[in-house]
């Protein structure tokens, strides 16, 4: 039977889906900005895409705290468009960052010549972090990772983040055993379960505002 098969894939913290690419892997929204912009490009040589964008809060619930324009548009092959993100309220904490997620779904156009056949349409969603950053925070974001501390309690590794910034850690390891990537919330502690055979040397890298990964930092328990 002829028909259209649809599938949806979500790529968290990636900036490219099919032929559609985002201009950043994360967004910082300064509290004194009226808006921030994000380029969206279509490098596919043939296909058009319908782009649908929305914001979710830290827990993954759709949020009305930001407005995206345009929320829905068609991007042609080889073209670029710009998403504009505007904070529309309510007031957010001024002593720390607030985390949101920007979702951009790329839905390929259906070829009319193939509409009556069996086709597979892949709708791919790119999901990147959006940090709402108040002005006048105590220290710079670049040095925040140097302030974290950690200790071990049984088989739990406890990270303490005393800064007002979210800190994204990747390539985490305990000795030679790998740990999952994690994001440390501001002014909070985060625990990870250590696998059997975990060593006492903890290694990690962090991702900065521009999506660059730092050199490895190490701490010994």
Automatic annotation (TrEMBL):
<feature type="domain" description="Pili assembly chaperone C-terminal">
    <location>
        <begin position="160"/>
        <end position="213"/>
    </location>
</feature>
<keyword id="KW-0732">Signal</keyword>
<dbReference type="InterPro" id="IPR001829">
    <property type="entry name" value="Pili_assmbl_chaperone_bac"/>
</dbReference>
<dbReference type="InterPro" id="IPR013783">
    <property type="entry name" value="Ig-like_fold"/>
</dbReference>
<dbReference type="GO" id="GO:0071555">
    <property type="term" value="P:cell wall organization"/>
</dbReference>
<dbReference type="InterPro" id="IPR018046">
    <property type="entry name" value="Pili_assmbl_chaperone_CS"/>
</dbReference>
<dbReference type="InterPro" id="IPR008962">
    <property type="entry name" value="PapD-like_sf"/>
</dbReference>
<feature type="signal peptide">
    <location>
        <begin position="1"/>
        <end position="17"/>
    </location>
</feature>
<keyword id="KW-0143">Chaperone</keyword>
<keyword id="KW-0574">Periplasm</keyword>
<keyword id="KW-1029">Fimbrium biogenesis</keyword>
<dbReference type="InterPro" id="IPR036316">
    <property type="entry name" value="Pili_assmbl_chap_C_dom_sf"/>
</dbReference>
<dbReference type="InterPro" id="IPR016147">
    <property type="entry name" value="Pili_assmbl_chaperone_N"/>
</dbReference>
<dbReference type="Pfam" id="PF00345">
    <property type="entry name" value="PapD_N"/>
</dbReference>
<dbReference type="InterPro" id="IPR050643">
    <property type="entry name" value="Periplasmic_pilus_chap"/>
</dbReference>
<feature type="domain" description="Pili assembly chaperone N-terminal">
    <location>
        <begin position="19"/>
        <end position="137"/>
    </location>
</feature>
<dbReference type="Pfam" id="PF02753">
    <property type="entry name" value="PapD_C"/>
</dbReference>
<dbReference type="InterPro" id="IPR016148">
    <property type="entry name" value="Pili_assmbl_chaperone_C"/>
</dbReference>
<protein>
    <submittedName>
        <fullName>Fimbrial chaperone protein</fullName>
    </submittedName>
</protein>
<comment type="similarity">
    <text>Belongs to the periplasmic pilus chaperone family.</text>
</comment>
<dbReference type="GO" id="GO:0030288">
    <property type="term" value="C:outer membrane-bounded periplasmic space"/>
</dbReference>
């Amino acid at each position: 039977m002829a028909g259209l098969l649809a599938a949806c894939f979500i790529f968290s913290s990636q900036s490219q889906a099919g032929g559609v690419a985002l201009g950043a892997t994360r967004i910082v929204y300064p509290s004194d900005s009226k808006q921030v912009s994000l380029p969206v490009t279509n490098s596919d040589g043939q296909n058009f895409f319908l782009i649908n964008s929305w914001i979710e809060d830290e827990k993954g619930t759709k949020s009305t705290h930001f407005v995206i324009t345009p929320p829905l548009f068609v991007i042609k092959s080889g073209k670029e468009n710009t998403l504009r993100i505007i904070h529309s309220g309510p007031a957010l904490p001024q002593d720390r960052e607030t985390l949101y997620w920007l979702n951009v779904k790329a839905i390929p156009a259906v070829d009319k010549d193939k509409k009556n056949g069996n086709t597979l349409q892949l709708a791919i969603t790119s999901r990147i972090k959006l940090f709402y950053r108040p002005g006048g925070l105590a220290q710079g974001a670049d040095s925040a990772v140097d302030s974290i501390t950690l200790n071990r309690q049984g088989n739990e590794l406890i990270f303490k983040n005393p800064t007002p910034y979210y800190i994204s850690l990747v390539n985490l390891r305990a000795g030679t055993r790998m740990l999952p990537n994690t994001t440390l919330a501001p002014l909070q502690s985060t625990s990870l379960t250590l696998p059997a055979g975990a060593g006492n040397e903890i290694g990690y890298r962090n991702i900065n505002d521009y999506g660059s990964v730092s050199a490895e930092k190490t701490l010994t328990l």
